[in-house]
Amino acid sequence: MASSVRILALEPYLGGSHADFLEGLAARSRHKWTVLGMPPRKWKWRMRGAALHLAREAAPLAAKGFDLVFASDFLSVADWKALAPEALARLPVVTYFHENQLSYPLEPGQRRDFQYGFTNLVTCLASSEVWFNSAFHRDSFLEAVRRLLAKMPDFVPEGLPEAVLARSRVMPPGMDLRPFVAGLARTARKPPLTILWNHRWEYDKNPEAFFEVLFFLAQEGVPFRLTVVGETFRKWPAVFEEAKKRLADRLVQFGYVPDRAAYQARVREADIVVSTAIHEFFGLSVIEAVAAGCFPLLPARLSYPEIIPAEMHATFLYRDERDLRMKLARLLGGEGPWDHLAKLAHGVQQYDWGNRIRPFDEALAIAARIT
Within the chain, which residues score under 70 in pLDDT? Predict the structure, then answer.
């Protein structure tokens, strides 16, 4: 029987996709997990202060004899090592990067505070291993590190991008895709087809471009229905309110669905999922929709060329907004290469936890042997 690793997981932002990932991993892993987390609020203050709080929280656990620390990118690992009890501070650390603060796009009018990005960089150097959820994420982060170092006026340390790369690993997350696959049983797809937006209602998902395409198609008289179920926050782009009015007669659902089963049902009922994102380090919501039998139309950039096999790029990726409009109009008119979809839906099952847990467990066991 494979050996079991005793893992202390530290998550300063235990909510949303961070919580889904960590809880799914710990529940399915053969290793023994102890999770210390903090509520998902005020991410900047989490990056500043989580190491101090978690070091104090972990102190009574030091005697349990952990083998490995598993952290997320919101933790300053250098601060953790300086503040934690010696029995914990000397342990190898694997840091999982869901996102980073150097290559994450800013809202219009904002200026980047490079201190958070520098914290990410030092965290990489203080970790034994750094795991990125996609190769695009890793590569864009390393390029942003190079740009950051170029801003330093003097005493620029050499070889930092290479040092981060040497300890990096691409580890796509696992997901529970079982509730979605029932959507593949659909046979007939007759107009009006349903377009799905299951992304966050935030600027980096570029909802303006998405709705501009739909406004155009509606004006042209193209039949479609619309389901908008992505997660909302206290503020969201104004275009959502405009869309609710202009597309009112086409709406199936318009608003976040907090009940997981109800959300899954809406995704299974949809026909087409569209992304117009300007930022995507992985693409969890797209994977869910594809697993449910939605035809994806995705930009030919970001992480999407990794998710979509190269031989399917011409079918499922678009070059620009004009290309998106043309491909979407053909699909809504009943045309399109729907026969490719079943193969893609089968392929994304590689991201189900049933297929991802073994690579994670094996990589964690290897990391725990680092001294």
Answer: 1-2, 187, 370-371
Q: Which of 61, 59, 62, 58 is nearest to 10 (CA)?
A: 58
CB 62 within 8 A of CB 88: yes
The pLDDT assigned to 189 comes to: 80
For the question of whether the overall pTM of this predicted structure is more than 0.90, the answer is yes
- What is the predicted pLDDT for the residue at 339? 87
Architecture of domain 181-351 in CATH? 3-Layer(aba) Sandwich (3.40)
Instruction: Find, among 107, 175, 94, 172, the residue nearest to 138 by Cα.
Output: 172
Q: Any idea which residue has 């053969």 for tokens?
A: 30
Q: What is the pLDDT of residue 3?
A: 81
What pLDDT was estimated at residue 2? 67
φ and ψ at 170, to 5 degrees?
A: -90, 120
How high is the pLDDT of residue 306? 96
Domain with CATH 3.40.50.2000 in the chain: 6-174+353-368, 181-351
Assign domain 6-174+353-368 to a CATH class: alpha beta
How far is the C-alpha of 134 from the C-alpha of 142, rounded, in Å? 13
Per-residue pLDDT at 171: 98
Residue tagged 């998106």 (tokens) = 324
Which residues, listed in sequence order, are joined to residue 333 by a DSSP beta bridge? Answer: none
d(CA 330, CA 336): 6
Q: What share of the chain is helix, strand, coil (3-state, %, to 5)?
A: 50, 15, 35
Using CA atoms, how far apart are residues 349 and 291, in angstroms rounded to an integer? Answer: 7
Burial bucket for residue 238 (CB in 10 Å: 0-12, 13-18, 19+): exposed
